[in-house]
Amino acid sequence: MASSMGTMVVALPKTQKNQAHTFLSQLPNTLKPKPTKTLKTYTTNFTCSATLSSTLQSTQKQEEEKKQKPLAEVWRKIHGEDNWAGLLDPMDPVMRAELIHYGEMAQACYDAFDYDPYSKYCGSCRFSVPEFFQSLDMPNVGYTITRYLYATANIKLPKLFRKSRWPDKRWSKHANWAGFIAVSDDATSKRLGRRDITIAWRGTVTNVEWVADLTNYLRPITPHVPCSVEGVKVEAGFLDLYTDKETECGFCKYSAREQVLGEVRRLMKVYENEEVSITTTGHSLGSAMATLSAFDVVENGVNVGKDGRKAHVSVFSFSGPRVGNVRFKERLEKELGIKVLRVLNKHDLVSQSPGLFFNEDSPRWLVKLVEWLPWCYLHVGEQLELDHKKSPFLNPDADVACAHNLEAQLHLLDGYHGKNDAFKRTSLRDIALVNKACDFLKDEHSVPPYWRQDLNKNMTKTEEGTWVFSERPISLDSHHDIDPHLGELGILSSDQSINQQ
After folding, report:
1. Do 380 and 332 meet the contact criterion of CB atoms below 8 Å apart?
2. What residues does the Fungal lipase-type domain cover (predicted)?
């Protein structure tokens, strides 16, 4: 705390040129005033405190919060009703908070995933459904997980999956945990103004290297995902990941697509008398899955509830690649009305792939001319571009993998106020989270890189004094039966016919 001493000085007018300075005590007393009390002079301490500025900022923030409408009144705008007009530049505080919330749901997929190749549970979720949020120190998230998502690892994208080095002890030969479906609880739904179904997809475990595995080939979305119009195409690897399954494996006997549509259909019935929203989110590869699953939900009417009421469907994408062609973009945005907000770091390479040569930045006449090519991709929705070089906490010359990091993007969101505004943190979000799985913070902050790890790599000491790998039950018992709901949608018969081809 800095302090300064102030002294009061009285300035008298100069009466004659070159006259010596005269003090009050040296002047003759000729006015003979009435006796008065002695004039006492005090020296006052003026204290300048660093807390004054923070107090003023806190007061200003409280005043701004009072002016904000509650989320229950503005949630449709926050979820893209007006394509986020007026909410991103300058950044609306409620908008920022919701983006960070859904980003943390996507980040939870990373934090819960077992990456360790020496674990027989490698590729699974480290926590059971009931303990998921509590184990991740997210007890107040206000959502309940209703289903885990699994994808088959039998696709031609080897860097997307983790497998144990001990195949004879592996928890599953075919599956990898891919994310979860959760629904807001009663108290949270009241605050949100609706019942929110969130589908969170896990991204890749190898940062940016997985992009090299993409076939960079557009494939018709039908018959794998029924679509009522022709010409819609998506990246072949994404489509395989979304629709492939292994019937002999209990975890992926349903494709990821079937798991999503069956569970969403079930939840739409459970909450048929309430207003419902469906929000998909994901980072990196998870962003592509979030976009594709949102398209599928609306294209096949799974968001239609009682009396034809439609649940609002939106996507909050982080560092996502391009997914489909021109017709996919047109169908998703204009015809289905799905709202997509893509958050990215301008220095991230993944968001620039695939479609390096022909994309949404190309002249419209050129896109129209080459849209039939199997490598002409376009981004969908609206874009919020961040810049890690604006943050005083981050190393501006860090490697490309850091620019792709999700925790870093959540840090950037916390300090983002507008495209031309300086970085200024708005919450107490811990900057140490940035280095959880990368080396991005400047050394002056004394946060070690890649600091998140399991205690003793999940080894525990037995009563006999030997160290063994901790057992972890993996069960599907908490999942509801989705067969009846898939039957109503006609998905099973459709997929079986595909598998027979």
Report:
1. yes
2. 199-356
pTM for this predicted structure: 0.83
- Tell me, yes or no, if 443 is annotated catalytic: no
Catalytic residue among 404, 414, 439, 485: 404
Residue 233 belongs to what H/E stretch?
Answer: strand 233-235
Per-state percent for the chain, helix, strand, coil, to nearest 5: 35, 15, 50
Give yes or no: 404 in active site.
yes
- Beta-carbon count within 10 A of 99 CB: 26
pLDDT digits (tens, 9 = 90+) for 259-310: 999 999 999 999 999 999 999 999 999 999 999 999 999 999 999 998 899 9
237 by Cβ neighbours in 10 Å (0-12 / 13-18 / 19+) ranks as buried
CATH superfamily ID and name for 90-386+454-499: Alpha/Beta hydrolase fold, catalytic domain (3.40.50.1820)
Identify whether 417 is a catalytic site residue: no
Q: How many residues does the chain have?
A: 501
Q: If phi over 0 gives left and psi between -120 and 50 gives alpha, with beta otherwise, what is residue 319?
A: left
Domain ranges for the chain: 90-386+454-499
Catalytic residue (one of 196, 348, 414, 439): 348
| Angle (CA) 43 47 48, round 5° | 145
Q: How do beta strands 233-235 and 218-220 pair? A: antiparallel
Tell me if 161 sits within 8 A of 209, measured CB to CB: no
In whole angstroms, what is the distance from residue 471 CA to residue 162 CA?
19
* Separation in Å, CA 444 to CA 394, 402, 408: 10, 18, 17
Q: Report the 10 Å Cβ neighbour count for 90.
A: 14
DSSP string, 15-64: -STTPPP--GGGS---S-PPP-PPPP---EEEE--HHHHHHHHHHHHHHH
End-to-end CA distance of the chain: 76
* Strand runs labelled E in 326-484: 339-345, 382-386, 459-461, 467-469
Per-residue pLDDT tens over the stretch 48-82: 444 554 555 555 555 555 568 999 999 999 999 99
Q: Tell me which of 284, 287, 317, 351 is the catalytic residue.
A: 284
* Cβ neighbours of residue 379 closer than 8 Å, sequence gap 6 or more: 322, 329, 342, 351, 359, 360
Contacts of 363 (CB under 8 A, 6+ apart): none
Residue 194, token pair as written in the block:
């609706």
